[in-house]
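dude i think i finally got it to work??
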Amino acid sequence: MPAALSLTRAQLGSIYDHALRHRPEEACGILAGDADGSVQRVFRMENAEHSSTFYMMDSQEQFQVFDQIEQDGLQLVAIFHSHPHSPAYPSARDCELAFYPDALYMIVSLMDGRPASRVFSIRDGAVEEAWLLVSGE
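look at this
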């Protein structure tokens, strides 16, 4: 698992736009890239639950994205979702549903009106913060 998630400003802007566009529902997506945590592709996904407190990716869409990641020679780097009304920290439910222990989890909080994000590793319910690196591209 990478120690840091590395995004460009444009990629981060795409994630924030997705979160803001779907507010008050949670938005979600997948970040694909290299083993070092450098993101190459942002996949903005449908929240099949259409909930403000919970997200679940559409299974068919998720299968298609994982297939595309494999075809592109990339790997799952992180899963992101938004918290429209709470801090950028994994909830108990987020920890229970962290099915990819080798991926990072990025959470975007919208509770203060503008997006703020943090990144975590979640393994067996243990939460550790990771670095979020944003380049100027």
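The first strand starts at residue 4 and ends at 8.
im so relieved honestly
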